[in-house]
Amino acid sequence: MQKIDIKALQGNAVSLFDDKWCLITAGTKDSYNTMTASWGAMGELWNKDVCFIFIRPQRYTKEFVEREELFTLSFFGQEYKKALTFCGRYSGRDYDKAKETGLTPVEIDGSMTFGESETVIVCKKIAQQEIAPAGFIDKDIDSKNYPTKDYHTMYIGEVIACYTK
Fold first, then answer.
1. How many domains would you assign to the chain?
2. Predicted confidence band at 37 (pLDDT cuts at 50, 70, 90)?
3. Do residues 82 and 33 lie in contact, with contact meaning Cβ atoms separated by under 8 Å?
């Protein structure tokens, strides 16, 4: 993979998350977990290039993101939709997701990603915030997205590296 400036990343950030999905991964080669995400954002905050990710409390990956300083966002081509579907549907508590999907775990800049990724963004956690229904101006958000009241935690990560193939 070739290291690039995040500002040179081609494509639309909304499309990256919504159309391509991504894997959020945290941990080390000896102990990591990954999950599929289609909610997220990229931008500039506090004079830093940042990514925003959202993780529900029951997700196993949340434990790794909480524990680790770094996480990666890995984006894939359409041919990996089946693998990403598996990684979003099944827990790393019960399955070895790399083994089940054929994805190749790779360490990069102190965190984990997968060799099949087209784009990898390495982030350092700089803030987190629990999503609370009291903050919803559009009251339909709660009923449509949180029927079991399992509100996400939002993590803000400073982009420390970006890689593309």
1. 1
2. very high
3. no
